[in-house]
Structure formats: C-alpha cells, structure tokens
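An instance as discussed:

___
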Amino acid sequence: MSIESDTENTGIDNDSANPIEIIYEDEFLVAINKEAGLLVHRSWLDKGETRFAMQLTRDAVGCHVFPVHRLDKPTSGVLLFAKSPSVARSLNEAFTDHQVTKQYLAVVRGYMTEQGTIDYALSFKRDAIADKLADLDKPAQEAVTHWQSLAQIELPFAVSKKHDTSRYSLVRLTPETGRKHQLRRHMRHLFHHIVGDTSHGDGRHNRFFRTQYDCARMLLHAQTLALSHPVTAEPLRLTAGLDSQWLRILEEFDWVESAKG
C-alpha cells in the first residue's frame, strides 16, 4: 500500500492565512510545504528573523519535531520532520544512504536538453558565521544531479545585449547527493542559472522576472519526496503545491500541465 500526501497533484495555490501548511502527518512524522523565505530553524546568519519552520510546525502539531533534512531559505516545498529522536535517526540514515528520492521544479535561463546528468564535484563553501570553525581544506565532494526538461519558451525581450529574445526552461531536478546549494551551483556551472537565485544566478534575468512578472522569489521548489515510512516501511510520497508567484509564471508561459508531479 502506498501512502500519498493529501495535496498530491492538486496544483492549487497554497498561499493562505495559516502559519504553516501541513501536507502529511501521522504519529511518527509531519511534512509541511515550506514557503519561500522561511528558515528551517534559528540561525546566526539571520538574526533578524522571527519565524522558523521548525517552531511553526511544533506549534501546529503540539509536540517537539526534529529536522531530518534541509531546504535553503529561498527554496519552497516539502520539508519533513520526525516526532521523536529515534525516528529522526532512522530518517537521517535513509537520507545518508540515498534511500530518499527528491524532485524539484525550477525555471532556468536558456533551453536545456531533454534530459541529462551533471556529475560535478563541489568544493566546500564557507559561511563566515555558521562555518567559522569548519575545515577549509576539505576536498571537493562528489555531487550528482539529474535533470529533465519539461517545457521551454522564447520571449520577445532582450534581457542580454547579445540576443533580441530570451529563452527559459522548466526543468525537473533530481539530486543524487545533498551538497550545500547543489542544484543552484550545478545549474550555474551549466550556464542555466535558476531564475531568482541572488547568490548563484544571473542578475539580469532576476531583474527581468521582478519587473515583468512581479516575481521576486527564487523559482526552485521541492515538489516531491519519496521514501519508505521509517516505522511501517510502506511507500510514502509527499507532494507540495505551488505558491501564487509560481502559478502566475506557469499560467503566463502555459506550463501548468507540464509542471504536474
């Protein structure tokens, strides 16, 4: 028997007045649809933040929760928590042993080929505060990402001086490894920067989407998470819907059907 989250393939705008959107919960686990701009937990890097996914989820379910993986602050989508340390350890092992499949949606600059794989090791990137005690001589770590191009569009706007039009692709990204900023850095390495990425992206395309489509977020979304339930061993597939900025882009580009998980 396969367990699927309640929001499977809805494509519904998940913006709401609720502090957190729960997409799956049982006595062992809870999964939420993390909004873009929300930190997973408190961090010295963002001292001014007052809202955190872990605390909001704890308050919503009425018990302590334990993070088992991470999403970057500007990334939205499926975020899974355990309700006990023992279940958290089991899930951490599943992530470490590559027993969890993660699939992301992204909008990138340029036309990507139909499908492919990038196997490109990533060097350690130090955060001035969070990683001040980290070993700076770490060798580059293996990093592998698979992609599938879902849709493409050419727009009659000259975002760069070299071309009279601008091209974009909707892609599904499936990382095998979980390195820091892996998808963002891999797409930059391929010169298919993720739109809205202010750290590893292309500022010209970011500004174009802000001014032309009122889209100020990074267009990277953790759409699905598939794993075996750590207690029952049943297949579990969690899916997070898209927010209003994502849906506006998909509708504008006629990509709604292409984006379904």
User: Anything to note?
Assistant: Residues 3-252 form a domain with the Pseudouridine synthase fold (CATH 3.30.2350.10). Residues 6-17, 128-133 have pLDDT under 50 and may be disordered. The helical segments are 53-61, 85-96, 182-189, 203-213, 244-252. The chain has one domain: 3-252.
